[in-house]
Design brief:
By secondary structure, the chain is α/β, with parallel strands linked by helices. Helix content is about 45%, strand content about 20%. The chain has an 8-stranded mixed beta barrel. This is EAL domain-containing protein.
Length: about 260
């Protein structure tokens, strides 16, 4: 109950912050963008991670307000970096969405506003959805995603392989890339079945003409195997953990 009440105040009290995990080109290691990851600076309990509050926020119907805050903030952040760091002009910022966001009728409008207010090019925005979000009303989800994709926004399926794989209509989904879940990547060396899953997802994305992104890359061996399988982009502690916006800006200044 305390958590619920605290959460209800958190947006107005400006207690949320976004951290930014670099996404890199696996072949060149060039920085190609960032995934935004929300954190909650709780007034008395310290920094909270999504696992501590996203489920509660969903239960009390607050997640869409939080995600829209993250959307606006991430768009503004990348747009402002683009003004300072020329190498950011082609980068993308990823924003995670929840199932409730797709049911909110004002989503497309809010996306348009976030882009207009920040001045960010739609092609620099990447929205991350999960397979499970597409199960309930697939036709409605497809129509919504088509509207989003028509703007040039990149849509990625996050945690791919862990959910209900809607292979029957995956080819109809207006998505741009599959982001293989980190649980498969982390076991790629230890467990041959995981290697096969990661290989199958790479082949699937190739056949569907989608990009393949790997997350949770921690070792050189994982990187080499993923490269060999055709993964173009990735994230993980081998490259960088999620950074504060100040640390991300310092990285950009240093890479410039
Ligand atoms: O931050 P961490 O790296 O612990 O992220 C854990 C999970 O929280 C990720 O799977 C991510 O998809 C989710 N998450 C992170 N930021 C957001 C956000 O702004 N909105 C939603 N809905 N989920 C998020
Ligand atoms: O849910 P999503 O997969 O979008 O969120 C990514 C989560 O994974 C975040 O909690 C992030 O901090 C974490 N993460 C990112 N890179 C790595 C990694 O290389 N190893 C591990 N164990 N966790 C990671
Ligand atoms: Mn994600
Ligand atoms: Na994930």
């Amino acid at each position: 109950l305390h958590l619920e009440n605290d959460l209800r105040q958190a947006i107005a009290a400006e207690e949320f912050v976004l951290h930014y995990q670099p996404t890199v080109d696996l072949n060149t290691r060039a920085l190609v963008g960032f995934e935004s990851l929300i954190r909650w600076q709780h007034p008395t309990q310290g920094l909270k991670f999504p696992a501590d509050f996203i489920t509660t926020a969903e239960e009390i119907g607050l997640i869409t307000a939080i995600d829209l805050w993250a959307l606006q903030t991430a768009c503004q952040q990348l747009a402002s970096w683009q003004q300072v760091f020329p190498q950011c002009s082609q980068m993308k910022v990823g924003v995670n969405l929840s199932a409730q966001d797709l049911k909110y009728g004002g989503l497309v409008n809010e996306i348009d506003q976030a882009l207009a207010q920040s001045g960010l090019n739609p092609t620099c925005l990447m929205l991350e959805i999960t397979e499970s979000m597409l199960v309930e009303d697939a036709e409605a989800a497809i129509r919504l995603l088509e509207q989003i994709k028509a703007r040039g926004i990149h849509i990625s399926i996050d945690d791919f392989g862990t959910g209900y794989s809607s292979l029957s209509y995956l080819h109809r989904l207006p998505v741009d890339s599959l982001k293989v879940d980190r649980s498969f990547v982390s076991q790629i060396e230890a467990d041959p079945r995981n290697y096969q899953i990661v290989e199958t997802i790479a082949a699937l994305s190739q056949q569907l003409g989608l990009g393949a992104i790997a997350e949770g890359i921690e070792t050189h061996t994982q990187l080499q195997r993923l490269q060999r399988l055709g993964y173009q982009l990735g994230q993980g502690y081998l490259f960088s953990r999620a950074l504060t916006s100040e640390a991300a800006a310092a990285l950009l200044a240093q890479e410039g």
